[in-house]
Each structure stands twice: as C-alpha cells, then as structure tokens.
C-alpha cells in the first residue's frame, strides 16, 4: 500500500523506543483545529484503534492516524529531532502554507 504519510528512520526508532513495554501502544498523530495558525499537530501514545484508522508500520514503530487528519497530512513526513534545545517530533507538511514559531501549528489555504 502506498501511503501519503511517511516516517523517517529517526522517527520510527524513537517511536519504537517510547512504545517499548507499553502493551502494543502506537503513536497517534492527529491534526486538530486550533493553535495560533488554525491547525495543530497532536502526538499521543494510544493502545486503541478505531476501525477506520490508518495504521503505518516502519520497523518496530506503529503510527495510527484518523482519516480526517490523514487528509491534512497527505504527502507529509514525520521526523524526530534531537537538538541542543530539546528533542521533539516534527512534521514536514507540503500542505501547510504557513506555520508558527512553535512548529506545532500550521495553516492551509
């Protein structure tokens, strides 16, 4: 299956590390209305899966995304950054026309 959302190796490794020992937990990636630019990304560990969720697997990592969020994430890539100022998941989203300085909020036209 060709998926419109991808994980980098760094993101997959970190997800697998976080979820290890969490009883089959997956990282849920969601896009919610709100934030300073109109939409915001949300990341949670989730053991539940809705029937219409899309499940992505990359190595030992599992990511679940609801269909509405997946529409806004088409062609996007989830990465993990480990920098001096902190470590965090980041989304490179070609649909975002602008984003705020926090990196978790974006807008589309």
In short:
The protein is α+β, with helices and mostly antiparallel strands.
Task: Provide the succession of SSEs.
Answer: EHEEEEHEEEE
The helical percent reads 10-25%
* Poorly predicted regions: none
Q: Structural class per helix/strand content?
A: alpha+beta
Number of domains as seen in the coordinates: 1
Q: What CATH architecture do you see?
A: Sandwich
Q: Strand sequence of the main sheet, in spatial order?
A: 4-5-2-3-9-8
By CATH, the topology is Hypothetical Protein Aq_1857, Chain: A
Distance from N terminus to C terminus (CA atoms, Å) equals 28 Å
**CATH classification class:** Mainly Beta
The oligomeric state of the chains shown is: single chain
Count of helices? 2
Arithmetic mean of pLDDT: 83
CATH superfamily: HesB-like domain
The coarse silhouette is globular
Describe this structure as you would to a colleague.
Helices cover 16% and strands 45% of the residues. By secondary structure, it is α+β, with helices and mostly antiparallel strands. It has a single domain, classed as Hypothetical Protein Aq_1857, Chain: A, CATH 2.60.300.12. The protein has a six-stranded mixed beta sheet with strand order 4-5-2-3-9-8.
């Amino acid at each position: 299956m060709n998926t419109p959302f991808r994980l980098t190796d760094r993101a997959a490794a970190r997800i697998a590390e976080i979820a290890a020992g969490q009883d089959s937990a997956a990282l849920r990636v969601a896009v919610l209305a709100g934030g300073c630019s109109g939409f915001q990304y949300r990341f949670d560990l989730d053991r539940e899966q809705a029937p219409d969720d899309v499940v992505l697997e990359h190595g030992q990592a599992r990511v679940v995304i609801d269909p509405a969020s997946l529409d806004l994430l088409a062609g996007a890539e989830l990465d993990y950054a480990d920098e001096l100022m902190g470590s965090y998941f980041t989304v490179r989203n070609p649909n975002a026309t602008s984003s705020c300085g926090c990196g978790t909020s974006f807008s589309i036209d």
